[in-house]
Amino acid sequence: MLNKDAHLSVKVFADDIPAAPTRDGFGTGAVEAGKADPRVVVLCADLSESTRAEWFEKEFPERFIEMGVAEQNMATVASGMAAAGKIPFTASYAVFNPGRNYEQIRTTIAINQMPVKICGMHAGVSVGPDGATHQMLEDIGMMRMLPHMTVIAPGDAEEARKAVVAAAATTTPVYLRFGRTATPTFTTPATPFQIGKALLLWDCEHPQLALISTGSLSYQALQAARALAEDGVDSVVLHVPTIKPLDTEAVLAAARQAGRVITVEEHQAAGGFGSAVTEFLAEHHPVPVKILGVRDQFGQSGIPEELLAHYGLDARSIEAAARAFITKNI
Amino acid sequence: MALTDAESTKLEKQAEKIRETIITMLVSAGSGHTAGPLGMADIFTAFYFHILKHDAKHPEWSKRDRLILSNGHIVPVCYAAMAHAGYFPIDECRTLRKFGSRLQGHPERLLLPGLETTSGPLGEGLSQAAGMAYAFRMDGMKQRVYCVMSDGEQEEGNIWEAVMFAGKHKLHNLTAVMDRNNIQIDGMTEEVMPLEPIADKYRAFNWHVIEVNGNDIPAFIAAVGEAQAVHEKPTIIIAHTIPGKGVPDIEFDYHWHGKPPTKEEGKRFLKEIRTMRGKVPHEYA
């Protein structure tokens, strides 16, 4: 059953649940953060419309810096601005930011511990028709390996807004991951959000399985849990927007309760969110784990729905994976 | 900003002391770069003992000028200058590159108060300096931002992104200094990857360009004065330096880019520096 304390949308399972891309949450969140703190600035690498950085630009033109197509410079200029007292957000596609400018981020932001907020849009295969070059599937792994770095993959546009506002208020470097495609807005302004805290979406007394998910695929996991429940298979769904630092307490509780874990992410199965969960559980409470992600391949062109289905990441695929895992342990 | 003869002589003597410290710390470390730090001793002396508005006892003073070292591998000269300027005890220089030292092989900002950034990976300092200059201008702050770079690192694409950015925004509070010593690890820059005409390249990107003898302290200080007077553009000072300056055995020799002197070589080099290449007797030589 739905966790009431999550205060999810009343339309959470309705056909007409409102949808918006998580990048919209970056746009609204940046404006909100900019109003709250005059030190907030936004740097963008020639993608101000599609990253929604232009929403900030319209509100605070003097605090928006157009970098041109130069992501390495964007990261390092942001580091310098942070050293001079600003709270910079850098916005581009995740394949470029942090894909293109990783070493600049490592040296000048992470080692330096500069409070730069790195925003990678168009993450995952749900970018759609642009194809493999623009579908970032390695960013969670790259960024969670960096010491001092916080890594957040919000579940919907509303949570993305909250995550951006919360990131602006921290003094640490943060990586925020956003998607291109509209996905259901299943949380509400009343839904709790705190960096480092997971959110239980679906609960039951005697789960056979814990679905532990990050990003917008948490909604797919929730739908899968509901379908499984209708068939008498009880599970819990733990949405984990903050991949680093991981909410180990919540992950441990879910693993203990269910004894079996499936992780879900729109990312390579190797090195990403599932790896983070597995690393923790292997040391503290080993249970069987199945990692749902893209298996050592790049994406391709297509519409988001068919791509998620192809890579086994939509609700039906998650449901099927759960049945196989429970019945045949595969 | 013109120097009196007495001031010039004092700074030149200070630079020799800094060279001695560089040799001592490199011998002690057993690894590190020799040519670049020796070649830049005059410029770092000029910065820490004349140009910068700074306070060694209050390194976090918010109105200080910022000196960004982009080519972090020449950090021994920066450490030596900072130590002589009073940021930390000169003796601590012997801990260079040792376990537990604040004086890391490449500079790490959070370990040593007074360092403005972490560097070593090349091509990143100019962007950070430009970001600082941009932010200071936003806030109406008057301090200046200086960035020391090598010539070899001009081969990094990130540099030219920064050059475009600073040119676009006419960051006149930013002054870059290029150590034009013509060497890099694999050989002479013009053989590894030709940079010339480097001055014209910067001019084409809307920078003010000054060329100067980087081992002539009064001339370098005059160049910085000229840069401060330019209000329409960022300035780059292309400082022609002699790699290994002060030790005739190694001057101009790219093989000394990335290695330290042995103990024996260190003794000989110190003698050469202290006796001004054998021209004057020195009690400790």
Automatic annotation (TrEMBL), chain A:
GO terms for molecular function: transferase activity. The lineage of its organism: Bacteria, Candidatus Kaiseribacteriota. Residues 20-185 form the Transketolase-like pyrimidine-binding domain. InterPro entries: PDH/Transketolase, THDP-binding, Transketo_C/PFOR_II, Transketolase-like_Pyr-bd, Transketolase_BS, Transketolase_C. Belongs to the transketolase family. It comes from the Bacteria. Pfam families: Transket_pyr, Transketolase_C. Transmembrane segments: none annotated. Its cofactor is thiamine diphosphate. Keywords: Thiamine pyrophosphate, Transferase. This is Transketolase.
UniProtKB/TrEMBL annotation, chain B:
Residues 14-266 form the Transketolase N-terminal domain. InterPro entries: THDP-binding, Transketolase_N. Its cofactor is thiamine diphosphate. SUPFAM superfamilies: Thiamin diphosphate-binding fold (THDP-binding). CDD domains: TPP_TK. Keywords: Thiamine pyrophosphate. Belongs to the transketolase family. This is Transketolase.
